[in-house]
Amino acid sequence: MKKDFSFFVAGRLRQIKGNNFSSLIAKIAIGSIAIGIAVMILAFAIFAGFKNNIQEKIFSFASHIQAKKWVDSYSYEELPVSKDLYLYQNAYKIKGVEHIQVYGRKACILKTDEEVSGAVMKGIGEDFDTTRFVNNLVEGSFIDLSKDGYSTDIIISRKIANRLELALHDKLVVYFVQDPPRLRKMTVKGIYETGIEDFDDLVVLSDIRLIQKLNGWDSTQVGGFEIFIDDFTKLDETFDNVWDAMDPELGISKVTELYMQFFDWFIMLNRNVIVVLIVILFVAGFNVISVTLIMITERTNMIGTLKALGSTNGQIRKIFIYNGSRLIIKGLLIGNLLAIGFGYLQNKFKMIPLDPNNYYMDSVPVLFDWSVILLINLGFIFLVGLILMIPTYIIARFEPIKAIKFS
Which residue in 355, 343, 199, 353 sits closest to 262, CA to CA? Predict the structure, then answer.
């Protein structure tokens, strides 16, 4: 019954019309809560978008786990390993492994009539996961790896194409750095763009059978294996599983080690997001306290009257908690609509562009994780709800006589 009384009074207070000061402040509070929750959701969504976008670009060229013959030095070319090794033949039996593919690399020089550029040719086979790479392809099509013999088609980056003044279907000569030097005439079959200098400046894709031919390898020999896992959050666990199944002659590396600079950047961005969230929560909490204090001050006479009529401090506090909670819920609804609406429009129309040379993409990416949005809303309600209760405790200090006389 006490709860019903408080709810009834809170409802009647909301029905009172007027342009009083507390009404203006309430609207400001709703606006600040809406903006706060919208910024929090967008901060996580934009960070997730950046992280996912860059990771997918990295994974299109570098697998989650790379296995090759162990050597105590770094080179753009690998010593050959056999596809008959246990790891390759039994990869899908390893818990967490989703896909395995072969590759081989070779240093080369790309030459046209006017320009020359160094590059690293990455040979790929029929087991190459084209679905991960297709989003990078901006012109042309993928190499046909099914024909007999090796293909003389090549996929180059837009940056290399611009540097060498090459277009789709143009011919070029590729010199391979070996003893004796060798060359092949090749055709540009496709042009890709990732925005990541590590790839766009150097890497070109070709048929791995060309690498095998140049190196004198047989059809079972490759430079190494690229392993993709089904859950990137379990990278360390799956890495250990692969390590246990690995052949003694192989060495394996995680993508987080090979491209450490990107994953360190993700950690730094995540810290920045957390700082922003703390500031927003502080501002939203301060606004809720201010609004509640103003509402209490404006209703001092009412509080004194209710106390004189026998209402308890708890009942009166609930009146203001109900009205404060209503402001929070209203602000949350508006904020969620703003965030989701902006994210949809940004993904569809790319309203906020970016410089690909600095951000690895041409517009701000927004990726919503609905479980994260739910947690943000629940956490916001819990924390700001606790803050809401703080100013209501001053009601206990109100003396009925003095409160009734207050003006």
Answer: 199
